[in-house]
Design goal:
Helices cover 35% and strands 23% of the residues. By secondary structure, the chain is of the alpha/beta class. The relative contact order is 0.09. Bound molecules: fructose -6-phosphate.
Amino acid sequence: MCGIVGYIGSKEATPILVEGLKRLEYRGYDSAGVAVLTNGKITIEKQAGKIGGLEKHIVNRDLSGKSGIAHTRWATHGHPTQTNAHPHADCTGTLALIHNGIIENFGAIKTELIANGHNFITDTDTEALVHLIEEYYNNGHDLEAAVRAALSQVEGTYGIAVISSTEPDTLIAARRGSPLVVGVGENEFVVASDVSAIISHTKDVTYLEDNEVAIIKRNKLTIKTIDNLEVDKKVEKIAFDLEKIEKGGYDHFMLKEIMEQPQTIRDAMRGRLLEDEGTARLGGIQHEIDSLIYAPQMLFSACGTSWHAALIGEYMIEEFVRTPVEVEYASEFRYRDPVIERGSVMFVISQSGETADTLAALREGRRKGAKVLGICNVVGSTIARESDAGVYLHAGPEIGVASTKAFTSQVTVLSLLTLLLGRMRNMGASKGVRIVKEMEALPEKVSSILENQGTIKAIAREYHQSQNFLYLGRGYNFPVALEGALKLKEISYIHAEGYPAAEMKHGPIALIDENMPVVFIATKDSTYEKIISNIEEVKARSGRIIAIATEGDTEIKKLADHVIYVPQTLEFLTPILTIIPLQLLAYYIAILRGCDVDQPRNLAKSVTVE
Ligand code: F6R
């Protein structure tokens, strides 16, 4: 979603701002712009489309200056045009503002400001904010006070950065509901919506909390609340290197991240498996273990791919821990007034830790008395900070918009949680030891699937022009069917649906004919015989069958048009293996269709608006 970069220091700002925007490209955007303070005057340049277009546009313009702000916009209010792109200016061009989030009461503010003589030129909600700041600025407030006064009138969410030509040594940034980090370098500061835009300059950062304002001078950072109380903030170290956010020889981040999975799964388990005791240790939630073990109910809330991981978690916990689990889309949970029993524990699952709906679900869960635990990837993210306790995935930055390695890490962490709680309830030591051994073997098994991509590429070639796909699975592999379909549709724009295989005959079977590829996840597990019957049903209607099957299952070849084999593992761990070929299938189909897999249309990596 929208990206923010701001710079103030002793270096030329424009190259730093443009590089920062490129680092944020993965978040998804449709236009980009930059504002630099040049000789006491603000120059704004912006373009619809890609950052490359903006770069060409500014090549012969004077954008020299030692402070500035830049933005990638993901349209919410108004089309993705040059005019609507950020930065936005006030009436006189004294102020420039960039904004992530939504100003919900912009209509009322705009009407009042127009009545006061302000001139609006865009369709955006953001423009109302810059004119509101102008209103206070013209009434004698300095930039900091004008921003604070304006923000106290705003309803909605924001991450903002503002500069003024009359205060050239100040950059103001503020947040409510939209992430913002200040990088603290030597005599320079870089503010951004995401540490990726900061890491090449400094690893020292301060995360802003909601309702905080950063007053950044060339050599001094002060953080206050909107109500003007100074806040003492920690400077923290970013824990990864630049190379982690680069492609490392792969054509796309998505492929790099798919290929990283043996390592990321290993990293999710590192130091957490206790082979002798046949259990797991999750340091981050160890002190909450009593609440977990005696919880009458668990709730998992998440969005998208993380929601699919949560569904697998539900199956695992109910099978091995016997605690009832509810899985809720965060966007529904936050508005639905759900019943939360006393003592309930809620897990919010989020790769980015910034998803607006998931964050709101966390807050709603807490309001209703649940203990709230987070499963996040991004260290220091808002959800990680607001949870009572939590577990990190340690998957490293996920840049590809389609989530891949985060999913397998989430399922791995949920397996660890299941093992830990299961062993405390009614699982014996020998079963625990067997699970530990099987989990330790997973990275190698994932590697073997990744090494064997020939069949997947051939299937991609045969079906990349299909208009529709169906994905079917049962039990633990039903959520994998949902996830496989999501991967395909989001990066290749092919219509794909995931279903529990048995549900097919209650409607979707009507879609099946010789043009419909149907992907069955049909590993040798407790529902194998049943899924074979479902395959027969599709075959009887001439559907084309692509089966994900267990190595050694030769029988399935007689039924399926194509078989992709995965190694045997315990049933509850199969999703960690079966999703791998589906990620690759989606990737290769999208490539053959000429799609930009790292920046699929309309999508954002981190969905920070509701
Ligand atoms: C799909 C995808 C999205 C995210 C969803 C939640 O590939 O990436 O569906 O899973 O937006 O994001 P997080 O996990 O960051 O809360």
